[in-house]
Specification:
Chain lengths: 296, 132
């Protein structure tokens, strides 16, 4: 807009000009305020996103540090005991007690085995964490996968004075997966059920096809898990407070935290229900492959 | 009577080998597997010194025990050697204990890191309570 020229002695003209300026100014100020509000809104959103991102990063970093710390602890503690055992024998503390020497060396062997087991689990764990692209997957006939597990677990149950009641439906479906990983996951869950049962108890295991899924259920009447501990069961190195000292003797590797990752990597589902001192039920489910059985 | 060492660790193999070493050097020993048991044994009979593992995984850990002992007038003078599996200087140790409980201010006399060299441990014990 072209500025209006006013005569010096024309106050009305000057007043018009001033009013026009004022109008422009008001318009610009409104625009400016609107812009500022926009910026403020943007910055609020950005700040929120930033603090969420920041919190997540910190949380992740802390989890990583904790993980490293716990892993170091789990590796170092058994090695420190093995170191002690070797020193006690080398320094001649047990010179006259060959039986004790022998006993301690056997225990050292067990501890070293635990460390190796843990290292293997850690490697598998990190492999699974990296992503599932590398997972070698094949068609698995569930019966074939289960039959050596049944034998192995019956044996373990017998040693622990537990009876396993197997209830496998006759026509189990095929699933896709990595047989070794799935074997590890199944064995781990059944092993837990046996270990945390009381002698004389029964463990019920069933496998069936339900809604295009293979459903595997392992039910024990053992020591159970405290309600407040249930959200933590997939944490690495988690062990329930009510686990008895004899449960802690054995290095368990990564236990349920690894099982969970194996099941996740297979697109499966794991559900754990438990009541303290009453028992635990673990349900695993996998999608099945629509395929006719070899002889069917 | 020989001086007595209370060995506290949740690792049975560590406890047993420590007992063999300490008894072999003329000390008497008692043992505990967790914090609660340790405190109970200290209250039953005051030991000359405590070898206290940090026992991160038990509900009543080594830190808890040392704090209980240091806040008790009857017990607070008992020397404590704290044993940790993981480097006590690591940032993680501080992180896990909470900021206000920096390792430097822990109420124990000596920190030792696993694996423990028997000769070093015996030296520390002798410094604190003398020969058996």
């Amino acid at each position: 807009m072209k500025p209006k020229k006013c005569q010096i002695d024309d106050p009305e003209c000057h007043l018009d000009v001033i009013q026009e300026w004022h109008g422009d100014l008001e318009l610009n100020l409104t625009k400016l305020i609107k812009n500022l509000e926009g910026i403020r809104e943007h910055s609020k959103v950005a700040k929120r996103a930033f603090s969420e991102h920041y919190a997540k990063t910190v949380e992740l970093a802390q989890a990583k540090t904790r993980f490293t710390y716990e892993v170091s602890h789990e590796l170092k503690a058994p090695l420190a005991s093995v170191y002690n055992i070797i020193n006690v024998i080398l320094d001649g503390y047990l010179e006259k007690d060959l039986k004790k020497q022998n006993d301690l060396l056997k225990r050292a062997k067990v501890r070293i085995n635990d460390v190796i087991k843990l290292l293997n689990d850690l490697l598998m764990f990190s492999h699974l964490e990296e992503g599932t692209g590398e997972l070698e997957i094949e068609e698995i006939e569930t019966d074939e996968l289960l039959s050596p597990i049944i034998e192995e677990m019956d044996e373990l149950a017998k040693e622990n004075k537990i009876k396993i009641n197997w209830n496998l439906s006759g026509n189990l479906p095929y699933i896709y997966g990595n047989p070794e990983l799935l074997r590890r996951a199944f064995v781990n869950i059944i092993h837990n059920a046996i270990k945390y049962s009381n002698p004389g108890n029964q463990v019920k295991i069933s496998a069936q096809e339900k809604n295009d899924s293979l459903l595997l259920t392992v039910k024990d009447k053992g020591i159970g898990i405290k309600k407040e501990e249930l959200p933590k069961i997939y944490n690495i190195f988690f062990r329930g407070e009510n686990a008895r000292p004899e449960h802690k003797k054995e290095g368990m590797g990564l236990g349920l935290s690894l099982v969970k990752r194996i099941i996740d990597a297979h697109g499966g589902n794991i559900k754990v229900k438990s009541t303290l001192n009453k028992g635990t039920t673990v349900e695993l489910s996998f999608s099945t492959i629509k395929k006719r059985r070899k002889n069917g | 009577m020989a001086k007595e060492i209370l060995i506290v660790d949740d690792d049975p193999d560590f406890v047993e080998t420590m007992e063999i070493i300490m008894q072999g050097n003329g000390y008497e020993t008692r043992t505990a597997r967790n914090g609660e048991e340790a405190l109970k044994k200290v209250q039953e009979k005051i030991p000359d010194i405590i070898l206290l593992d940090i026992m991160m995984k038990t509900k009543t850990d080594g830190i808890w025990v040392s704090e209980k002992i240091r806040s008790d007038d009857q017990l607070k003078k008992i020397p404590i050697i704290m044993i940790t599996a993981v480097n006590q200087d690591s940032e993680m140790a501080k992180f896990d204990l909470g900021e206000e409980e920096d390792m430097e201010y822990m109420p124990v006399n000596v920190f030792m890191e696993k694996p423990i060299e028997a000769k070093d441990l015996l030296q520390e014990i002798e410094k604190l309570i003398g020969k058996p």
